[in-house]
Amino acid sequence: MQIYAVPISTLPDVYISHLLTFVTEEKKQRLSKFLQREDLIRGLLGDLLIRKIVSEKFAIPPKSILFSKNTFGKPYLYMPLNLLHFNISHSGKWIVCIIDEHPVGIDIERIHTVDLQIAKQFFAQEEYEFIENEQDALQRYSRFFKVWTAKESYVKAIGHGLSTPLNSFSTVRGGAVEGLRVYDQCNWYFKIFFLDDQYTLTACAKNDKFCETVEIIALNTFVQFFLND
Known about the structure:
globular
């Protein structure tokens, strides 16, 4: 299992135009609907990040990599055909990607103030109590996003989309975000990473053999890979 992260910033139009040549027409159409330039960049670089990873691992051109989606909309590798599973997430200045031989999910969120009644409405009771039992106001927000990213990473790992109600399972055991056993009775595990003090990143997998660190790829290095192609 490996996790990659790219810190992003604005890019010149000439770079964006070149990078767009590596994605499908369908992807270009979806990206064109973004009203904010930052959202377009995040969506574009998210697609390119998995292309870079697969291209380097299997020594194939990034443009030859094809994706498809399951019935719930979760993307998977269509070409090359292999057992590599992946998932992508982005928030604010970060794009992250996880790969493994088994289903995985990942979610990153910027920690910020939020109406904690959301937790009461959408989280399991144990998760809501885990947040409310924290006395420090700022730490309550931190706990909220630990739970939120864990739940999102699990939903993304199983690939069932919005058909899985967020309050139908709990990620909290013994006063901490832990693994869970639901649906198919398989264990799922979580690991929380902190890229910096403003973001929470949680990975979800069917095994607990997580990588120890996240491999950070500098934006210049990332973009140069495609400029050289």
